[in-house]
Amino acid sequence: xxxxxxxxxxxxxxxxxxxxxxxxxxxxxxxxxxxxxxxxxxxxxxxxxxxxxxxxxxxxxxxxxxxxxxxxxxxxxxxxxxxxxxxxxxxxxxxxxxxxxxxxxxxxxxxxxxxxxxxxxxxxxxxxxxxxxxxxxxxxxxxxxxxxxxxxxxxxxxxxxxxxxxxxxxxxxxxxxxxxxxxxxxxxxxxxxxxxxxxxxxxxxxxxxxxxxxxxxxxxxxxxxxxxxxxxxxxxxxxxxxxxxxxxxxxxxxxxxxxxxxxxxxxxxxxxxxxxxxxxxxxxxxxxxxxxxxxxxxxxxxxxxxxxxxxxxxxxxxxxxxxxxxxxxxxxxxxxxxxxxxxxxxxxxxxxxxxxxxxxxxxxxxxxxxxxxxxxxxxxxxxxxxxxxxxxxxxxxxxxxxxxxxxxxxxxxxxxxxxxxxxxxxxxxxxxxxxxxxxxxxxxxxxxxxxxxxxxxxxxxxxxxxxxxxxxxxxxxxxxxxxxxxxxxxxxx
Length: 493
What we know:
By secondary structure, this protein is of the alpha+beta class. It is 41% helix and 19% strand. The strands form four sheets. A nine-stranded mixed beta sheet has the order 2-6-7-10-1-11-12-13-14. A three-stranded antiparallel beta sheet has the order 5-4-15, with no helix packed on it. A two-stranded antiparallel sheet has the order 3-16. The radius of gyration is 30 Å and the shape is elongated.
């Protein structure tokens, strides 16, 4: 039988504030010695009182604006009761009835696995039901029959984003989470680093016979910590549940974990319902009121987001969808690229120059950064310097092959392209008399290839051109060589 897959996503984003949600302990917990960022408040000691982190509230509103949500300007805090060792108070301070943000949506592109466009690519909209602010739990580590708890993470500001069940396969889930990760990084509210626990995802999914309307039994896959785990866990569950339903078995409402090594889901516990948490208003915190002026300031602080930037790059600079995606995934790369485009300062040839500039950034510059382990804000080359290199290629002072060598020198030294070209004598040779002699020398040295070309093997033209370029040590103008070579060969017919 064929089944429709229905998926809703719960994503927990740790907000990158200096202090925790309700106390002054450091929120920078990853990599610290266990239990060094702990105080009576986040440890749940009797008599300790919480205080609201204003910056965390602002970060939450920023994401709400970016996700096209309505913002609750009057809300309050509630206690969510459950008893696990990683929650020292026996409850979590959260928002339930009135979340910080609600009724929004995220639009993103579902592309092929390389990030490019093909005939199967499409624009997707997923509705955001709510995004509520709360505190994170501690971190449990299990070793054999023992369990250890680290409370450094307990109390870190956490924003939980809950979607409507608008996702229908593992690839869409991957694309949604990737788009959300890009947004939180653009906003500067979270590192979005899933491997370090700054972003965790919990798909809720069910299957139903194709063509029916009733939802199937929902299962939750808990705390997935990588994009590949999201895709793998959902794909596995689709196969597992499909096989079970085909056998007439019932799907149980459970919480599952993901074993990344074995590539299977594992049972953790029966799924709780909301009433099990015994929500009630938090008596130690006042209601949270957001003024119109405060909300306006937050709205004004939200930058242009990736999907809008991608559309602008295609319209203004004539870039392909693939190039636009590669340049906008990282906000620092996008900023660097746009600074370079301004330095080109040529409105008449903006599309051609922008494409050449983009090719350098996406190709050779990225390759050099990956090899050196540097981020774009750490490299010696400035956007204006790369623009200078692009201009040298455009006016044919150097050719593309030489430009790659110059770029490597620039990357290592931080010198200007023009200075390197002059110091090493790399300027392109365009003197026709010099190039004509080089062509004749190559033809004289390769009589067999010339004869075969004249007999109809025209592919040998590129070989002869290549030999001429090699003889000139890459400094000859390749377009001129091509034309002169053709003319010289035609004279020999």
